[in-house]
Write a structure and sequence with these properties.
- The structure holds 2 protein chains of 2 kinds.
- By secondary structure, chain A is mainly α.
- Chain A is 68% helix and 0% strand.
- In chain A, 20% of the residues are buried.
- Chain B has 9 helices and 17 strands.
- Chain B is globular, with a radius of gyration of 21 Å.
- The chains are: A mainly alpha, B alpha/beta.
Chain lengths: 122, 326
């Protein structure tokens, strides 16, 4: 039975290590930073942990409806495919920094892409 | 249409999106409350029947969650709920006022002796309730386990319901009720305790920070500890002598008062405490622990800037002092 990337990377501690790096990249990128509420860093980080757990193939309870509800406001603010591409790019560079193999990075990107339409509420 | 709330012998239909607290207050019920932001825990209630939404229990310690306690200001239930004020006997402790001192024109030092064990860590906060059912939260500024009393620093607010009562009415020997503690702003030695610690705050944000410094030193923290206290004018500072003395007595502790509106002076550093703190972050960002307490704009801004500068999110402990909305 194949292990998930989540298991191979080391589970929750790996997500915790990745989330700071990933979130920092997003806050430092003017193209996407404005989608993150300035005052609720803890809440945002918790959401990013859920997202990374999902992207790593780890245990998560997201339904398509949850993704839509979570992002409808952002879509109203102008969230597009370009932004989703940028997020997946930052996810990739985060994993590269953590020494994750290219094949695994591609797999994570594929999982992230699989929720693209739910995120964009279409 | 909102859910039906049963409270004592009243049935209250909540409006769409209305919290349990707002609904009860709208119907003239008395429910202690303060920040209306899910932080201070003054509006704690218990649900005798019905499902509590997860968001209404955020920040509560596990024992509270298990007892079905929730924050009324954060509770917008999907289905009907039967609620009541929490069983005070189980949650609160009576405490006696043992000392009151003015630390400056706007800060009152209050010392309380709980009548029963009140387990808490310096830097956490508790909810203080007076005989008029006014509830406010304050941070623990000392080491109660060592001192035998709990010290709070009360900001005197114009027409303040609690601060006015404490200053004008509360007498030595009077009883108050305390509940808690809550909050994650406290010192916890990780490994060798040799990592850098930075603490920054404004006004009575100094209270928890002072407790945390004392706690860290008492636990033998060997890394550098740097405390920055910011104020608009020099007169707004307090504990200047105590902190200067503490710094003189501990090689690894330094104290930097920062004054925004003041000329050059040997007594303090002139400037914006936020800029001063960011400029003072140590080389080893990833290992640094940061404690931020006081004015929300400063706390949130420094939290974000320090994180972007490279501090780990799990090493940033922030306690924004929200003004009361009661």
């Amino acid at each position: 039975m194949m292990t998930t990337i989540y298991e191979r990377l080391g589970g929750q501690p790996a997500v915790d290590a990745a989330v700071d790096i990933f979130y920092r990249k997003m806050l430092a990128d003017d193209r996407v930073a404005h989608f993150f509420e300035l005052t609720d860093m803890d809440g945002q980080i918790a959401k990013q942990k859920s997202f990374l757990t999902l992207a790593f193939g780890g245990p998560n309870n997201y339904t398509g409806k949850d993704m839509r509800n979570a992002h409808q406001k952002l879509v109203d603010q102008g969230l597009t495919d370009e932004h989703v591409d940028i997020v997946i790019e930052h996810l990739g560079s985060t994993l590269k920094e953590l020494g994750v193999a290219d094949a695994d990075i591609a797999e994570v990107a594929a999982v992230a892409n699989s929720v693209r339409n739910d995120v964009l509420c279409r | 249409m909102g859910a039906l709330i049963s409270y004592n012998d009243r049935r209250i239909r909540l409006e769409d999106g209305e919290s349990v607290l707002d609904g009860l207050l709208r119907e003239d019920q008395i429910v202690p409350h303060s920040c209306k932001a899910g932080i201070c825990q003054s509006c704690l209630m218990s649900a005798a029947r019905g499902d509590i939404p997860e968001t209404a229990q955020l920040g509560l310690k596990p024992t509270y969650k298990r007892q079905g306690l929730f924050l009324a200001c954060r509770c917008v239930p999907d289905a009907d709920l039967t609620v009541q004020l929490p069983d005070a006997a189980g949650l609160s402790t009576s405490a006696i006022v043992v000392e009151k001192n003015d630390l400056n024109d706007a800060v009152l030092q209050l010392r309380l002796r709980p009548v029963a064990d009140f387990d808490c860590r310096p830097g956490q906060y508790l909810t203080l309730m007076n005989p008029d059912q006014i509830a406010r939260s304050y941070s623990i500024a000392n080491q109660p386990a060592i001192d035998g009393y709990i010290e709070l620093h009360i900001r005197i607010v114009p027409n303040g319901a609690m601060s006015g009562w404490l200053r004008e009415t509360a007498g030595i020997g009077d009883h108050v009720t305390i509940r808690g503690p809550a909050g994650d702003c406290f010192y916890a030695a990780d490994g060798d305790g040799d990592y850098p610690v930075i603490l920054a705050g404004t006004g009575t944000g100094l209270a928890p920070l002072y407790g945390i410094v004392a706690d860290a030193l008492a636990q033998g923290h060997s890394g550098d500890i740097r405390l920055f206290h910011g104020a608009l004018q020099y007169e707004d500072l307090y504990f200047v002598e105590d902190l200067t003395e503490l710094a003189a007595g501990h090689e690894n502790f330094s104290y930097q008062p920062c004054v925004l509106n003041g000329g050059d002076s040997p007594l303090y550093r002139q400037g914006n405490v936020e800029d001063i703190v960011i400029a003072s972050l140590p080389e080893s960002k990833a290992a640094t622990r940061l404690y931020l307490c006081g004015a929300p704009e400063l706390v949130n801004s420094l939290k974000r800037k320090a994180f972007l500068a490279g501090l780990a999110s799990k090493h940033i402990f922030a306690d924004a002092f929200l003004p009361s909305k009661a």
